[in-house]
Amino acid sequence: MQAPLSPLSAPVLRDLIRERLLLHPEAGIAGGDHVVAGVPAESPPLRSAAVLVPLVEHPEGFTVLLTRRTDHLQHHAGQVSFPGGGVEPMDSGPVDTALREAEEEIGLPRSRVEVVGYLDPYQTVTGFLVTPVVGFVTPPVPLRPDPEEVAEVFELPLAVVLDERNHQRHSREFRGQRRHFYVLPYRDYYIWGATAAMLVGFARRLADPTASASS
């Protein structure tokens, strides 16, 4: 078992994050919902997407800024997710997509985000190939959530993510198959699916840079 990361001081943890993240998104090995579920990958045309993994550095430690999506959205309605979305033609790359979406969804100015690297790309069962972009955010964080897309913004302590005891595997029937998925418990929030898997992958990358993001 790896030594726990959560007791590390903020400066040490900040340096470790910089050291362990991917410098280029294409350097990662794509995982996805199918890997976690233990089923063969579906092969529909995939749409490129990017999410921002905003790490807010408070005096008491880092948190991850997350959203709870509104219930009427076409994709992932009501679920906890990172700010992000599909790549648009005007975007110069995944960083541009992630920062644009974060600004549109929660009003986070891109000037307040220091991009420091990437997590492994992640294929969702809904047909997206997602590039997670990690950035440091210094509080106070001025936010203006879009009520059409975002029901709530909250902060998840990074210590919760780094504690492997919180990396729960659940399962349910989906399209006639029993599929496994990750759940991270935190208060009354149900953090599951791709968001939980990417957070588990983040924790594993910090503990071991060769670890799979979604095994």
Summarize the structure.
The chain has helices at residues 10-20, 33-37, 94-106, 158-162, 193-207, and strands at 31-32, 47-58, 61-69, 80-81, 84-86, 113-118, 122-123, 128-137, 150-157, 168-174, 177-186, 189-192.
Question: How would you describe this structure to a colleague?
Answer:
- The protein has 215 residues and is α+β, with helices and mostly antiparallel strands.
- It has a single domain (10-207), classed as Nucleoside Triphosphate Pyrophosphohydrolase (Alpha-Beta Complex).
- It is built from 5 helices and 12 strands.
- The strands form 2 sheets. Strands 1, 2, 3, 4, 5, 6, 7, 8 and 9 form a 9-stranded mixed sheet that branches.
- Strand 10 and strand 11 (177-186) form a beta hairpin.
- The mean pLDDT is 87.
SSE arrangement:
Blueprint: H1 10-20, E1 31-32, H2 33-37, E2 47-58, E3 61-69, E4 80-81, E5 84-86, H3 94-106, E6 113-118, E7 122-123, E8 128-137, E9 150-157, H4 158-162, E10 168-174, E11 177-186, E12 189-192, H5 193-207
Parallel strand pairs: 1-7, 2-8
Antiparallel strand pairs: 2-3, 2-5, 3-4, 3-9, 6-8, 7-8, 10-11, 11-12
